[in-house]
Amino acid sequence: MAHERFRGWASRLALGLLSKPNTPKQQKQVTFEASTLETLKPAIYTTLTETKTQNTPGVYSLTFREMGWAIALHGGAGDIPITLPRERREPREAALRHCLEIGVSALKAKRSPLDVVELVVRELENNPHFNAGRGSVLTNKGTVEMEACIMDGNTKKCGAVSGLSTVVNTISLARLVMEKTPHIYLGFDGAEAFAREQGVETIDENHFITPENVERLNQAKEANRVQIDFTQPIQKDPPEKAPFENGDSQIGTVGCVAVDSEGNLATATSTGGLVNKMVGRIGDTPVIGAGTYANSLCAVSATGRGEAIIRATVARDVAALMEYKGLSLQEAAAYVVEECVPKGNVGLVAVSAAGEVTMPFNTTGMFRACATEDGYSEIGIWPSSMHT
Amino acid sequence: MGGWAIAVHGGAGVDPNLPTHRQEEAKQLLARCLNLGISALRTSLSAVDVVELVVRELETDPLFNSGRGSALTENGTVEMEASIMDGPKRRCGAVSGISTVKNPVSLARLVMEKSPHSYLAFSGAEEFARKQGVELVDNEYFITEDNKGMLKLAKEANSIVNLVSIITLTSKDVGTMVRDIYEFDYRIPILGTCSAGAGAIESALQMNGLPISIYAPETVGCVVVDSQGRCAAATSTGGLMNKMMGRIGDSPLIGAGTYACDLCGVSCTGEGEAIIRGTLAREVAAVMEYKGLGLQDAVDFVVKERLDEGKAGIIAVSNKGEVACGFNTTGMFRGSATEDGYMEVGIWDQD
Fold it and tell me: Binding site for substrate: residue ranges of B?
């Protein structure tokens, strides 16, 4: 029942009600002093109850939903078999939980969403179980070429890097490109040189290469195709579809999106790319609008088959549908995943300025986790009953 | 409507003091490329073939900033990038960091057709070119005397030159200018150094009066819809003068500098960073798709609403045979033609 400042609240309120949030939120009642009811508009979206008290005319009380922070992260979407053995599943689940906790603590400590997504993605990069940073999949020459991208919703400032092989945390380099250069995107030798100039932590390329990924590369070469980054050895039988169609990575990429209680949004994505990819291949992750995008409405990070995500400008389309067709976050994300990209190719995590979260995917599974301020949280791999 | 349509551009942002003979040169090149495209369309080549052909011509001619005649990196080398997109099925291909391939747009097409990927860069892309039997040349081939001179001057001013937008500096406050990076010394961190930024900007204003600001085109592109309503788009560039090694701009980024779908084909030029941030090419298609705007309305909307302080120009065609163009810069080298006989080449607003 506290008096609150009108200004900051009103825009969040309008956003919140426009977006028709799906996750349950608390209803709150707030009392305002205002000279007229009109002052409290955009009241078309609110339930306004006029309360006249004895001594203070012009006091109104409003009912609205409280917005808060929200965070979602992923460790890759793809053909993750339900029969995934425990010893491969549990470390990843534990990692997701750990990263979620880090992100949530940071949000509670009022760190900016940009800091939060960078922090979480750094953690995911350092974890060798995901295809980013350490644990990145290998090119057809057995090398590592990492890429990452970060974007700030309010300013739409962004930074991206590709073709890194010695930088310990690619996402942080992307952030430096955003903040310390007049450019958005640096690649390969130029990016490595920039990293050294900036004094970021670099290390011998072998640090990133894990035995698991060497094995994956060998198998892919045997099958002579660009491979889906399964979490178990590939079948020897060729897939039903043409090699290129089915062969591109559907796992791999880590990402995080976050919004704070003021509605500031940010997104970050990082990856090693495709197993057995050609040297120099760039995927969707560093292409703004494809794998990564944030504006003042939402923040999106996608994962899956890079080539399909680029073509469908997945991340941008989620935001565009919200903006131009007035869809809610959940509706927009579901539409893009279900209608705009062939089945088995994409998953994404997204949050809206109003604090909603959604994690749709059209693959067998997606390593994911999310949490919102009102206490909701989820960690999962395969579709749960709550998702379409 | 219906029937084919084609538009080409040679960059947005032109020095209003550009000497007449240079303007004529540019218009002649644009007209020549248009005619090339028109002839190709009359032989029923598909849209994607036509855009590749026209952009190849633009790359080969040293006049504009692509292929031969590309802007130079801080090291005096050339690093080119290009992308191409075919509307039906939205197939795409892109390359970055190309330094030995004569026609980057054709390499981008090969990536689209002959590789399992959509985007290849730097040594990997050159390797792919070699394997595909593409003709390779020395980096020297792409470097022109004009551009060597410009690089020298740019370095002297110790800033990255986006010659497109010098003119607009006066209207903003210093803090925004430093951030907006029209004239910018990238060694200075963005926050809190307004005085240093102001220093760089002052020299930028001086540069405006210098001869080097005369001719500073940026990127070439072509969009086509063929008589079967298929749209395609392609964009190619050498990038920013004095750019950092490894810098990638909007031209090879699908959705930013280039986009094509069932509805339209779009190619953008101008401030790379603003185009990326605004996902400009995709935006035109998105407002047509999701808001139901017509082609010209969509282009106008995006130029007006999606550029914030950025400066850029857009050419676009629709599957209905329409052609449109819009820019918020001082001039844009452009040309367009439709099957019903309309043809126009222009630089300024009033053209």
Answer: 247-250, 269-272
